[in-house]
Amino acid sequence: MSKILAVLEQRDGKLRKVSFEVVTAARRLTDAVDAIVCDTTDREGCAAAIAERAKAGGYRAVVFAATATGKDLSPRVAAKLGVGVAADLTDVAADGGGFLVTRPVYAGKALLKVKVTSQPAVLSLRPNVFTPDERATSVKPETLPVTSSGRVRVREIKAAPAGTLDVAEAQVIISGGRGLKEPANFKVLEELARAFGGKAAVGASRAVVDAGWRAHADQVGQTGKTVSPSLYIAVGISGAIQHLAGMRTSKVIVAINKDKDAPIFKVADYGVVGDLFEIVPKLTEEIRKLHG
Amino acid sequence: MPDSETRVKIAADGKTLDEAGVKFVVNPYDEFAVEEALRRKEQAGSGEVVVFSLGTAAAQETIRTALAMGADRGVLLQVDKIPTDPFEAARVIAAELKATSWDLILFGRMAIDDYNHQVGTLVAELLGLPSVSAVSHLDIDGTKGVAEREIEGGIEVVEFPLPAVLTVDKGLNEPRYPALKGIMAAKKKPLEVKPVQTGAGTLEVAALTPPPERKAGKIVGEGPGAVGELVRLLREEAKVL
């Protein structure tokens, strides 16, 4: 296996966790991994620079993280290389001169195995799937200069309020549905999330996002985000098929619901039946003790 | 594409969806694109909204839905089979769009079946137009556009010149339901069917498989009294705390 070009992502001058995931996955395929970063506020300039480098360096693959930025950047680069992106992969293996990759389709209701034969291959990896190894965190990427200035510019990033974590990146997700009864009651989930000390995010079902209780950014499911945290706690969510699709790859699933026949209990590893307004505060108390 | 309530069954070839009994709908993200186009036309007071779809003959229904929402005419780029390689889809769409100077080209940010989220951006590159993906808020002033897109932990504000290609996200607008009058009118609107050929590309389906089954879980107990045991199991058995 010849060289792989790993495109890393940084924010506020620091490499993001997904970058270490990309490095780890690439190094599983070859020892010859070149890691780069570039100024993504100039999307077109950055894409041009990556494509130039990919061509000049004779890489076997260009690997991105399938984040909001990676999903925008990777097809720009792929088009310049005349190929499509094998996108949002949960597994990558060498296959002859190419790759055999796995991508969840129908929001995870099925897995598509795809042979990638393009030279180079352009791959994007689903965040939170490839566990970064220790060695990856010491990677020192080369900064690719952006030489041609593009037309599309990121003017600013409005950061979410400090301490809020995106559901796509959180290690723990506590999601709420109709069972919360009204928007203000999400505070019981926010308190539980806080008890995890900065590792947890609050998610939502489509029903409560469509009702305007929570932002679309928090929606987990087929028309929202597909997530794979270590721990997913579904609270007052019955478990519509399109919600299950978005969270079934979570490592451990806990369901709290008053209806013991709710479909969510079929995918949950651990279920507690009963009134969430009694159960969740008790759970918050217990988690605080552990993290206290 | 298949409705989001679809239970996925794999066909006998082991590579495709068994479409028997599947309800097909307009991709929800494409509805945001159609709605945005209609609103832009209504605000401008003039113009034309043309709907394109790359699909099988069945996609005529999809186009009729968009015409019923208010689009002026439709074009079906008809294929026997949707290509696996999104670059092949993009190439055919770009070749078709190239002849016209569009003010704005809108795509859904992704399809809820194949999750490729790239065709719009690929088309933009092939046409040499600027693009922004996953737009959830949009302001246009003459030939200057400002779009917002969700990123992990925030919102990115992006400036771009028009004409441009945008792929759109939920949150941009509330798509209208076609009214009966619109549905009747749609039957008379022009819908051109153009057979097109896509190449094989460099992505080939090896297999479509069901996701690994989750092993059966257990009900720990009822009410707040079960929380102690739940926490113990999460620590000692699942080792996630």
Structural account:
The complex is a heterodimer of chains A (292) and B (241). Chain A is α/β, with parallel strands linked by helices. Chain A has two domains: 4-143, HUPs (Rossmann fold, 3-Layer(aba) Sandwich); 172-291, TPP-binding domain (Rossmann fold), CATH 3.40.50.1220. Chain A is 28% helix and 28% strand. Chain A is built from eight helices and 17 strands. In chain A, strands 6-10-5-1-4-11 form a six-stranded parallel β-sheet, sandwiched between helices. The longest helix of chain A has 16 residues, at 276-291. Chain A is elongated, with a radius of gyration of 20 Å. Chain A starts with a strand and ends with a helix. Chain B is α/β, with parallel strands linked by helices and 241 residues long. In chain B, 27% of the residues lie in helices and 27% in strands. Chain B contains six helices and ten strands. Classes of the chains: A alpha/beta (292), B alpha/beta (241). At the A-B interface, helix 3, strand 6, strand 8, strand 9 and strand 12 of A face helix 3, helix 4, strand 4, strand 5 and strand 6 of B. Strand 9 of chain A pairs antiparallel with strand 9 (203-209) of chain B.
User: Which whole number gives the mean pLDDT of chain B?
Assistant: 95
CATH-defined architecture of the largest domain in chain B:
3-Layer(aba) Sandwich
User: What is the CATH topology assignment of the largest domain in chain B?
Assistant: Rossmann fold
Spatially, the strands of the biggest sheet of chain B line up as 3-7-4-5-6
Count up the domains of chain A.
2
| Helix fraction of chain B by DSSP (H/I, runs of at least 4) | 25-40%
Mean pLDDT of chain A equals: 94
CATH architecture of the largest domain in chain A: 3-Layer(aba) Sandwich
Strand-and-helix sequence of chain B, N→C? HEHEHEHEEEEHEEEH
Number of strands of chain A: 17
Helicity of chain A, as a percent range: 25-40%
Strand line-up of the largest beta sheet of chain A: 6-10-5-1-4-11
